[in-house]
Specification:
This protein has 313 residues and is α/β, with parallel strands linked by helices. 33% of the residues lie in helices and 17% in strands. It has 8 helices and 9 strands. The protein has helices at 2-28, 38-55, 74-90, 110-121, 177-182, 196-206, 244-247, 305-312, and strands at 64-70, 95-102, 127-131, 135-137, 152-153, 172-176, 225-227, 262-272, 275-284.
């Protein structure tokens, strides 16, 4: 019994001494901020990385609203929508197409329709394209990018199939939302065809904005755009009545976004070859004390109508 007790005591002594030695060795190690807490550190790093991604703003490309003034041009629209959709997708431009269909009985008013389109999209889009339905871009260097510096005239006179004077800004014009608002939009006095773009050019210049045009275009008037308007099948309304000729050749300081009167008869969603469109059926209002030429008849037509037609068609 004495021998067994002695062995047991020695065994316990060894265990105690070994434990004390291990403790002393551990306690003698330097304690620093770099002591490994591997699992904890890995979790913390992962959490911080996740937070950095979650907190970083996602850069979105500005969204374009294509505004298409429209009346009785369905055959042209059937070609326009698929063509422009493919063209803009190649440029990775986010866009929506709005067909601004004039639904009332008055003469066509392109400028007022664009004003309506602007008011309907200004809170959901970053910039607009005032876009004729019969003008299709074919050169991929015609970039529909956000016009950060000022209005961007895509269909510049050097390349438009028909109009080549220096101050021409018709066809396809891109503007920032704030710039169009600053200009008070376009004049509402232009019932019938022509001259609303020329008046808008004066507004742009008076506001101190510069019109930009696409650089590095090596094509010409014959192969930069497709102009699909058939002037024999669809004659333009160039009638002038009352004092329309005199008034519409002056800068309009009275009308624009602030004086526009209209109602939306209906909104329809239309798909053409897989391309979604929003059709706004618009009823414009006409104050005949201001613009009696919103309706003309043969008795009030200008006697010089035939001469005007030859110059304008």
């Amino acid at each position: 019994m004495i021998v067994l007790r002695s062995v047991y005591v020695r065994f316990l002594t060894i265990i105690v001494l070994t434990s004390i030695g291990v403790i002393l060795m551990i306690s003698s190690l330097p304690v620093t901020s770099d002591t490994c807490r591997c699992e904890s550190d890995r979790d913390t790093r992962h959490e911080k990385l996740h937070e950095s991604f979650a907190g970083s703003p996602v850069t979105k490309k500005p969204k374009l609203a294509v505004l298409v003034p429209f009346r009785d041009r369905f055959d042209e629209l059937l070609r326009f929508a698929p063509h422009l959709s493919v063209f803009l997708k190649r440029q990775n431009v986010p866009f929506d197409i709005f067909v601004l269909n004039q639904n009332d009985r008055y003469r066509f008013n392109r400028a007022s329709l664009i004003n309506v389109g602007f008011l309907e999209v200004k809170l959901t889009h970053d910039y607009i394209a005032m876009h004729d339905v019969d003008l299709l871009p074919t050169n991929d260097n015609l970039k529909y990018d956000y016009p950060a510096n000022g209005p961007l005239h895509i269909s510049s006179p050097e390349f438009h199939p028909k109009y080549h004077y220096a101050t021409f800004i018709g066809g396809i014009l891109l503007l920032r939302i704030d710039h169009y608002q600053k200009l008070n939009g376009m004049s509402n006095k232009y019932w019938g065809w022509g001259l609303e773009d020329d008046e808008f050019y004066v507004r742009i210049k008076e506001a101190g904005l510069q019109v930009y045009r696409p650089p590095n275009i090596t094509t010409g008037p014959d192969n930069t755009f497709l102009h699909i308007h058939d002037r024999l099948h669809r004659r333009r309304d160039t009638t002038k009545c009352f004092n329309q000729r005199e008034v519409t050749r002056k800068r309009d300081r009275e009308t624009g976004l602030n004086s526009l009167r209209y109602s939306i008869d209906s909104r329809k969603q239309l798909t053409i070859e897989g391309v979604p469109l929003t059709v706004l059926n618009i009823n414009l209002e006409c104050d005949k004390s201001v613009t009696p030429w919103c309706e003309c008849d043969t008795k009030t037509e200008s006697k010089s109508h035939s001469t005007w037609s030859k110059k304008s068609v």
